[in-house]
């Protein structure tokens, strides 16, 4: 089928953009670690795909909704109804971004397949003026919006099966890149342990069951042990820390607080502390005893040394 053959070109196009994608991930991870936000902005299909990625971050990674946001031309209505006319206003893009109080700690990702959407271009220019880092995700390497972006990600997916319908290959490429930006950044922030979602929001029966399964697989604990740790801690990350280290709730919480919640760093810190403690114990055992601090020598009866008897 023609569509399937064309779709196979998309992953290859994305793979050719791994270098700028990696730089963008580093930018996003650094911003989030320093109190900033990841703000997507787009119109039409691009905006809706951005909104989808932003909406998935809280339940997947346990982050607050404000951390990853999407600004879509036309507002909430445009998520379910076409509002393409709004994308022609660069000033509206700037105003919508200004309403989010963009600052120097934020990263703004403009998503536009054509690379010429005025709404996105106006937003990126405004973001740069406010000192924010900017990323452009487009299918047009010669986009005029490049000048407003610190990093440009431009997978070349070629002509669409239906000419100009960028919801197809271009949209698929955008979804793949957005997945990588948010997921890789969250992994760097310690929001994932191996390939387990340790900040999963367990808001229904299916997700609670998944949470217990993650705990058991990640730690080797029994079902009873996983349930008990989860009941004591109230969350997967803390429960996993307890089961992996044998620490109490308070000890595990303190260690995580010292590492800013980064599970990998917390486990490494606990492991390092355990190694230091073990070395200290071995050092004490192997240290030579000081003279006079050894075991007392017991004298045999009747063999007292001269001069140690009772005085007459």
Count of separate structural domains: 2
Residue stretches low in confidence (pLDDT < 50, at least 5 long) are 308-312
H/E order of the elements?
HHHEHEHEHEEHEEHHHHH
On the 0-100 scale, what is the average pLDDT? 88
Helix content: 40-55%
Report how far apart the termini are.
119 Å
Please report which band the strand proportion falls in: under 5%, 5-15%, 15-25%, 25-35%, 35-45% or over 45%.
5-15%
E-strand count: 7
The main pleated sheet reads as: 5 strands, parallel
Reported by name, the CATH topology of the largest domain is Rossmann fold
Spatial strand sequence of the major β-sheet: 2-1-3-4-5
Query: Number of helix segments?
Result: 12
Features:
312 residues, alpha/beta, Rossmann fold, Helicase, Ruva Protein, domain 3, 2 domains, five-stranded parallel β-sheet, two-stranded antiparallel sheet, 9% strand, disordered C terminus
Q: Can you walk through the features of this model?
A:
With 312 residues, the chain is an alpha/beta fold. The chain folds into two domains: 2-189, Rossmann fold (3-Layer(aba) Sandwich); 193-279, Helicase, Ruva Protein, domain 3 (Orthogonal Bundle), CATH 1.10.8. Helix content is 51%, strand content 9%. The chain contains twelve helices and seven strands. The strands form two sheets. It has a five-stranded parallel β-sheet with strand order 2-1-3-4-5, sandwiched between helices. The longest helix has 24 residues, at 263-286. The chain starts with a helix and ends in a 26-residue tail after the last helix. Residues 308-312 have low confidence and may be disordered.
């Amino acid at each position: 089928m023609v569509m399937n053959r064309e779709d196979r070109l998309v992953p290859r196009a994305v793979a050719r953009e791994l270098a700028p994608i990696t730089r963008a991930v580093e930018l996003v991870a650094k911003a989030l670690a320093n109190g900033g936000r990841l703000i997507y902005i787009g119109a039409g299909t691009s905006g809706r795909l951005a909104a989808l990625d932003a909406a998935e971050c809280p339940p997947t990674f346990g982050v607050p909704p404000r951390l990853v946001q999407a600004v879509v031309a036309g507002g909430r209505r445009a998520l379910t109804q076409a509002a393409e006319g709004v994308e022609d206003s660069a000033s509206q893009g700037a105003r919508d971004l200004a309403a989010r109080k963009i600052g120097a700690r934020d990263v703004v990702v403009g998503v536009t397949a054509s690379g010429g959407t005025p709404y996105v271009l106006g937003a990126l220019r405004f973001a740069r003026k406010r000192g924010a880092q900017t990323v452009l995700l487009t299918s047009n390497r010669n986009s005029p919006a490049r000048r407003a972006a610190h990093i440009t990600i431009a997978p070349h997916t070629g002509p669409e099966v239906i000419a100009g319908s960028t919801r197809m290959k271009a949209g698929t490429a955008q979804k793949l890149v957005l997945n990588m930006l948010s997921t890789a950044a969250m992994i760097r922030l310690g929001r994932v342990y191996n390939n387990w979602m340790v900040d999963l929001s367990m808001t229904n029966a299916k997700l609670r069951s998944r949470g217990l399964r993650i705990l058991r697989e990640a730690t080797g604990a029994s079902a009873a042990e996983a349930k008990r740790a989860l009941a004591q801690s109230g969350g997967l990350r803390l429960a996993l820390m307890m089961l992996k280290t044998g620490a109490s709730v308070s000890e595990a919480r303190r260690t995580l607080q010292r590492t800013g919640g980064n599970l990998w760093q917390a486990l490494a810190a606990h492991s390092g502390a355990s190694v230091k403690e073990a070395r200290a114990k071995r050092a004490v055992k192997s240290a030579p005893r000081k003279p006079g601090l050894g075991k007392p020598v017991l004298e045999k009866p009747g063999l007292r040394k001269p001069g140690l008897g009772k005085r007459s």
